[in-house]
Each structure stands twice: as C-alpha cells, then as structure tokens.
Recover the amino acids of this structure.
C-alpha cells in the first residue's frame, strides 16, 4: 500500500553541521510531498512542499527535491542551528481518495 | 488568528468517561483530517471528513471512536469509555479542496488527552 518512510532518529548534530533526513515513499499515483516541523509542545507547521517530480521546496535554509526516479524527498540543510531542534515529519497527500500519509517523524537535536 | 483551532488544548479524563475534541478548520476550508500521535511515535491518520460526510475512516478504531463534521460548527472527535491507551495528542488538519494534492494541510496545535 501507499506509505512514507523516514530515517529513524534521533539525530544529534553540532551547530553548523550539515543535515540530511531521508524520506522515501511508495505510491501508485503521484502524491504531493511535504515536510512538517513540530517544536516541543506545539502543533505541526508546514516547512516546505513539492507537488511534482523535480520540484524543489525550500524554506528557512531547508531544501527537499521531489525525485520520482528514487521515490525520495530527503530534507537537507547546509548549516543547522540550535533553534532547528525539533521533530520533522515527511508526509504526502493525494495517495488516493484524499488520504494522507506521514512518516514516523525524526527527532533532531542540535548542540551548541 | 485564522488558523486551525482545536480545543481544549489539554483534556483529562478518568477511565470510562467520554472525551470530546473539537476542531474548527481554517476559514474557507471544508475538509478536515484527524491524526493521533502517541508518545514517542509519529502521526497516524485516523479519519478524513468533508462537511456532513465521512470520506475515509480507515485509520479509526472500530469501537468507541467516532467523528463528525456537521454543516454548522466544528468537527468533533468523540471517544467513548476512554482507556489509558487513548492517552495521546490528537491533531486536526484542514485543507480547502477535496483531495487536491497541491494543497497542504494546515494543522492545529493539538489536544493532549490524558487518561487517569
């Protein structure tokens, strides 16, 4: 069935390190893909999105490219900050009948 | 704030009681999704509703859980006879169009349900 799979966490990095959080999907259709961020005690916020193959979403220094050939949507940031510490969810919409699917979330901790 | 509004933010219930969680979608949005986030776990889809219709409830437990989105008023997620395992954060999201894949969902801040 349709699904989204994220790399397992937690991920711990030093400030200014390079970040990659892997996300892959399986789908019979062509879903739109999103990254959401959840800060402690808060709800989810949309971080970036891509609606078709080769689209690149970007926001706040984060980027992700919708790669159809590898069915991936990896999240990257060149230089993380302590304030980026949060849980990141990869998700998709449009797998069928409006259904959405999310990965299990990856906890990122950035140390000064 | 015209975002998705959920209330209450925190809800405490004793085993056997009923829990009602409310979600008012963003203005202009007619589609609502409910998710459950168990402690230390990811988001799990529960149900997708349109005004007065349940579109997909494949993630909803078969017993004790129900959801509605009436023509007027907020969407309600109702849990009857709560048990300790129902303790979780419940998130609501809304989108403007039916399954339009380029429309991201907007999330509320969630209701944290604790069962004593």
């Amino acid at each position: 069935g349709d699904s989204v799979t994220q790399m397992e966490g937690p991920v711990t990095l030093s400030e200014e390190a390079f970040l990659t959080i892997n996300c892959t999907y399986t789908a019979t259709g062509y879903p739109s893909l999103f990254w959401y961020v959840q800060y402690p005690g808060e709800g989810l916020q949309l971080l970036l999105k891509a609606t078709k193959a080769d689209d690149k979403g970007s926001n706040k220094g984060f980027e992700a490219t919708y790669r159809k050939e590898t069915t991936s949507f990896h999240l990257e940031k060149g230089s993380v900050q302590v304030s980026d510490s949060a849980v990141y969810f990869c998700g998709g919409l449009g797998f069928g009948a409006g259904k959405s699917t999310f990965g299990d979330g990856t906890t990122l901790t950035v140390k000064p | 704030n015209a975002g998705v509004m959920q209330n209450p933010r925190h809800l405490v219930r004793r085993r056997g009681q009923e829990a009602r969680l409310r979600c008012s979608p963003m203005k202009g949005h007619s589609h609502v999704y409910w998710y459950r986030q168990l402690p230390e776990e990811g988001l799990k889809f529960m149900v997708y509703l349109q005004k007065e219709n349940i579109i997909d409830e494949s993630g909803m437990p078969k017993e004790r859980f129900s959801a509605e989105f009436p023509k007027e008023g907020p969407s309600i997620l109702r849990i009857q006879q709560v048990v300790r395992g129902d303790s979780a954060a419940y998130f609501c999201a809304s989108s403007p169009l039916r399954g339009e894949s380029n429309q991201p969902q907007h999330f509320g801040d969630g209701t944290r349900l604790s069962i004593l």
About this structure: The interface with chain A takes residues 6, 31, 33, 35, 41-45, 48, 55-56, 58, 91, 93, 95, 98-110 of chain B (CB under 8 Å). Chain B has a mean pLDDT of 88. Chain B is about 0% helix and 50% strand. The first strand of chain B starts at residue 5 and ends at 7.
